[in-house]
């Protein structure tokens, strides 16, 4: 995303936040060949994310799967954060000649509305089915270690202490690649640190996968 385009969308982020109110978190992701990062975020009291936070899992999946080639935007997918807030997410793909340059995301915190609706439904003895599956459910991770923990199923401490063989490390890197982890800007040094290998080694593993 060039400087002028980024400046334009940053203004739009602030406009949307002022218009929609504090229950709407507006996030601008800048996507480049080096990866993706948050360029602007307003009303981040909702997710507690910052400019330095990684992309969410669903954002990485959309970039990895090139969803933007088939659709201009996706609206009203269900999402939640680590504090189990109920939210609704929407993403607009910023493109130039079918090349993805950014993501404009709106996360609506519907926790208060859900609480009121639950109270009304309980008064009428109407309850949600706890066994219902929710599609496109997204858990917002506040840092890269939590994201990696989510993918591997291991705590970072156990992950770092495990004596992994080269093939195991390559398998993990392949899993990260499939999940779109490497679309996050600045992820290579973090992966190298956690796997206890050099950054060039991570690049070599990626070359084998690609």
UniProtKB/TrEMBL annotation:
Pfam families: HTH_22 (PF13309), PAS_6 (PF08348). Residues 9-117 form the YheO-like domain. It comes from the Bacteria. Signal peptide: none annotated. Residues 157-206 form the Transcriptional regulator DauR-like HTH domain. This is DNA recombination protein RecN. The lineage of its organism: Bacteria, Pseudomonadati, Campylobacterota, Epsilonproteobacteria, Campylobacterales.
